[in-house]
# Entry
Amino acid sequence: MTIHSTLLGPITLTGDDAKSFIRKITYGRGTKAATESAINGRKLVAVFARKGAVPIRLKAVKAGTKKK
Amino acid sequence: MSYEIRALADGDGCNSLSLGDAALVPLKTFLRKEAKRLHKDNLAKTFVLVRARETTPLAYATLVCTHVSVRQFGDLAPVDGFRYTDYPAVRLARLAVDAHLQGQGVGAQLVDFAVALTGQFIMPHAGCRFLVVDSKPNAVGFYQRKGFTPMGASEEGNTAFTRMFVDLHRLQAT
# Structure
């Protein structure tokens, strides 16, 4: 079911979405993608916590790659 | 050229972001008109990517406290003894990258930063189970590659979103 959303408002789940969500958080596991994101993020946040800013290296753009 | 992520600062010039798509104008408007006030008032916190030691945000992510309200009851049986109807969470409320930097991993770094910032600094001290995002249809694949799972549909104004989440609790020991 589609729920209206606002920036500072709550997130409401109903019906099948609610049931599916509860199953996912009861039985789900951290995915490999989420784990990799967290590992990289922790490195960034560790530097940010010490220095107030963290250097970021950008990926090189391949020749001929169309930018979105 | 070197870049850095840091918190939005009062002296940042927030008028230059160019997103290259008319549908993304609200993201540009938010940074220009609302982000600093919400940041200052501790209602929503914005982190920006800038060239090192410069003051022009070229990308940003905004985080805000929220909660997931589960209304599963009624004609549906409770699932497996589930007891709670509200879960504390943080919402990745805004994410935008200047058109000239798109495709270079900036959005991915900002999401990783948000996942870890919430997991390392909020969840352990205040209780916060999820990082949640309302994804535009064309960004669902991006968030799935970052480990987000769909949890339903939402809309803000006339725009439809796929609501997605990461369960931070599952990432604690990784």
User: Anything to note?
Assistant: Chain B touches chain A through 72 residues (CB under 8 Å). The mean pLDDT of chain B is 90.
